[in-house]
Amino acid sequence: MNLAAITLLGLVLAGDPQAQPAPDAAAVRKCIERSLPFLEKGAVDWMQTKKCTTCHHVPMMLWTHYEARQRGFAVNEKAMQDLESQALAHYLGHPEFTPTGQDTGFMEKKLGPGTVYLSLALQANPAPGDEAAKALEKLRDNFVARQNDDGSWTTKVNQAPLVDGHDVMTMLILTALGKGELNGKSREARDRAVGWLKETPARDESQPHVFRLLVAVQTGDKDEISRNVEVLRTSQQEDGGWMQVASHGTDALATGQALYALSAAGVSADDPAVRRAWKFLASTQAEDGSWLVHTRNPNGHDPIPSFYGTGWATLGLLRTLPPGANR
C-alpha cells in the first residue's frame, strides 16, 4: 500500500467520519486484511473450546476466507481445511443434521440454521472438494425434505439477526439452493418458496430487504431488483451505514449485508452509496480488525453478533472492491 493510502486510512479511523473523505480501494483492502485474522482466530478458538461448528463462527470464517482467496488475499489454507472438515463431520455425522441446541428448533420439521450458513460458506469455494460437494447435495436435499407445505421454511426465531424471521430463513435457504441448475425436487421447492415469498408482506427492516434483493437477483426479477435497490438506497443513513431495525442504530452487520446485496444487483464501487458505506466501515473498525455489533436479544450478548457482523462487513467490502484492486 502506498503512503497516501496509509495516511488516508489513518485519518478516517482517527477523525470524524462525516468530515473525512471516503477511503480508496487500497484502504478498503487494509480493512479486509485486518478483519480476516480476527475471523480466523475466532473460528479456530471457538471450535477448540466449544467443540461446535455453530451457525456463526465457523461458517462465517469459511465464507469470508473463500471469498477473500478468490480476490487475491492471503489466507490460512490449513485452518480453512481443518475447520471445513470438522464442520462437515459435525453436521453430516448427525442423523438429522441438527447437532446443536440452536439447530433443534421448535417446529415439527427440524431445520438448523447452521446447515444454511454452512451451505452458503461451502458455495463460496469455486472448486469444492469431493466431500464438500457431496455435503452440499445432501444439505440441499435436506432443505427440500423440510420445506413446509406453504413453501416456506421455519426454524427457532430467537437469535436475531442470525434468525429473525421465517421470511429471512426462507430467503436464506433460497440463496443456499443456488442459482445454477437444480434437480426436479429442488427446482420445485425453489418455485414454491418464491411463490410464498411474493404473498408475504415485506418487513420494513434491513435484513429482509437485503435477502429479497438477493433472491430477486437469483430469479432475475427485474422489478423486484429495482424496488429493493431503491429501498436500500433510501434507507442508508447520513453516516453511510445501515440499521438492522429503526431502534438499533447503524452497524457493520446491516452495512455489510447491504453492500453485499447491492453488489449482487450490479451497483459498482464508484457508486456514492458504496463509497459512503466504505467510509462508515473504515471509521468504525476496531484495532483488532473487528466491528462492534450490539445484540438484539434481551438475553444475548455482543460477541456473537459482533463476529457475525464482522463477517458481513468483510463480505460487503470484498464484494464491492473493483477488480483492479483485488491484488
Provide structural commentary.
This protein is an all-alpha fold and 327 residues long. It has helices at 3-14, 25-50, 57-70, 77-92, 101-104, 113-123, 130-145, 166-177, 184-198, 206-219, 222-235, 252-264, 272-284, 303-320, and strands spanning 242-243, 250-251. The chain has a single domain (3-325), classed as Glycosyltransferase. It contains 14 helices and 2 strands; from the N terminus they run H-H-H-H-H-H-H-H-H-H-H-E-E-H-H-H. A two-stranded antiparallel sheet has the order 1-2. Helix 3 packs parallel to helix 6 (113-123) and helix 12 runs parallel beside helix 14 (303-320). The longest helix has 26 residues, at 25-50.
Write the layout of secondary structure elements.
Elements (H helix, E strand, L loop, with lengths): L2 H12 L10 H26 L6 H14 L6 H16 L8 H4 L8 H11 L6 H16 L20 H12 L6 H15 L7 H14 L2 H14 L6 E2 L6 E2 H13 L7 H13 L18 H18 L7
Antiparallel strand pairs: 1-2
Helix pairs in contact: 1-2, 1-13, 2-3, 2-14, 3-4, 3-6, 3-14, 4-7, 6-7, 6-8, 8-9, 8-10, 10-11, 10-12, 12-13, 12-14
Question: Keywords, please?
Answer:
single chain, 327 residues, mainly alpha, Glycosyltransferase, two-stranded antiparallel sheet, 14 helices, globular
